[in-house]
Write a structure and sequence with these properties.
- The chain is mainly α.
- Helix content is 45%, strand content 7%.
- The protein has a three-stranded antiparallel beta sheet with strand order 3-4-5, with no helix packed on it.
- A hairpin with a 5-residue loop joins strand 1 and strand 2.
- The longest helix is centred in the N-terminal third of the chain and has 21 residues.
- The termini are far apart.
Length: 350
């Protein structure tokens, strides 16, 4: 049945989504169905589960456990359909605000993003209709001055025991200062190994060059292993049915490595490096580095070494000089060297 809305506009009633399957018996079960049904990687599932467990407490108006109490805490038992309670947004406001006061902005924003992804997936299944987080805003995160990795951190990264694919991918990102999504779109036929360069499709669709150094050049032949075409960076298994032809290697039937998976592997592999004082049993709850930090670190090092502005623009492929400001700030090693050079005691010893 139709009705007139404001201003006499004809308004159709909202159609209800027909559930694709029977709703799970509890919120906890809905979380597990989401983690498996949405294809969340095993390396990320633990973080997602912890975040959604935290939201389970807040959905009932209870403060989420923090610190040691958080590990192993289980949410109250309730039906996932309770998320549609019209009163929930108001109930949720207080524990969500308290959580934002207790935790850093990065953690709060990550948990909110995970909750909204899960809610969206549950909506598409027809299990719920609303989103009680709709009025909760992301917290403004203060600028992070540690994005550029120190020289010893980069050296520690190269010492990690990882696969040839990861070694080559990370080396190429750092040496070329290219964006991760650009590098992952490279095909074998885009490479010019003798010139240590490759053709990439940049932002806006332009075809441009990226350049690498000897570290990448030494690894590439082993990674390519005689292939002459197809995606450069491949998954470890055959591509699923329906994968786009351009993203499948004809020789191996494996698919192109996705940005999400590449980021997950890097983040998981660098957790101990990013949190050197953490206990091994705690490190899975902590965050590692991001792929973008390799690009940021390379361009920061270029700026420290006196690379000219035109060359930095060409290497970063930014259109504006203003975009280079984020890299113009000297990194931790450059500042440390400057402080040491100005140390009166050091001058006296000399």
């Amino acid at each position: 049945m139709t009705e007139l809305g404001a201003g006499g506009v004809l308004r159709l009633p909202r159609a209800r989504v027909v559930p694709l399957s029977a709703p799970p018996a509890s919120y906890t079960a809905a979380v597990e169905r989401y983690l498996t049904g949405a294809g969340i990687a095993k390396s990320s599932a633990r973080i997602y589960r912890i975040s959604l467990t935290t939201w389970g407490w807040m959905f009932t108006g209870e403060p989420a456990p923090t610190g040691a109490a958080r590990r192993g805490a289980k949410p109250p038992v309730f039906l996932v359909a309770a998320i549609d309670d019209p009163a929930l947004p108001e109930v949720l406001a207080e524990p969500a605000a308290a959580r934002a006061d207790e935790m850093d902005a990065g953690t709060v924003n990550r948990e909110l993003s995970i909750a909204r992804k899960a809610i969206g997936w549950w909506q598409r299944q027809g299990w719920i209709e609303g989103d009680p987080t709709i009025g909760i805003e992301r917290r403004p995160a203060p600028p992070d001055r540690t994005k550029a990795l120190a020289e010893n951190q980069i050296a520690a990264l190269w010492r990690l025991d990882v696969s040839l694919r990861e070694k080559t991918f990370w080396k190429m990102l750092y040496e070329s200062a290219a964006r991760a999504d650009e590098v992952l779109c490279l095909n074998v036929e885009d490479l010019y190994p003798q010139d240590k360069r490759g053709k990439i499709t940049a932002k806006g669709g332009a075809t441009e060059w990226i350049h690498w150094q000897s570290g990448t050049a030494q690894l590439l032949p082993r990674l390519i292993a005689g292939r002459i075409r197809g995606p450069l960076f491949l998954t470890g298994r055959k591509s699923p049915v329906g994968t786009a032809t351009l993203d499948v290697c004809e020789e191996t039937s494996r698919a192109r490595l996705s940005y999400r998976r590449g980021e997950e592997i890097f983040e998981e592999s660098t957790r101990l490096l990013a949190n050197p004082l953490a206990r091994p049993e705690d490190v899975e709850d902590l965050a590692g580095w991001t792929l973008h930090q390799l690009r940021h670190s390379a361009l920061t090092r270029d700026a420290e070494n006196g690379t000219s502005t035109p060359m930095l623009l060409a290497r970063s492929r930014h259109a504006s000089v203003r975009s280079l400001e984020r890299y113009a700030r000297p990194g931790v090693d450059a500042v440390a060297r400057r402080v040491a050079e100005c140390d009166p005691a050091a001058r006296r010893r000399g």
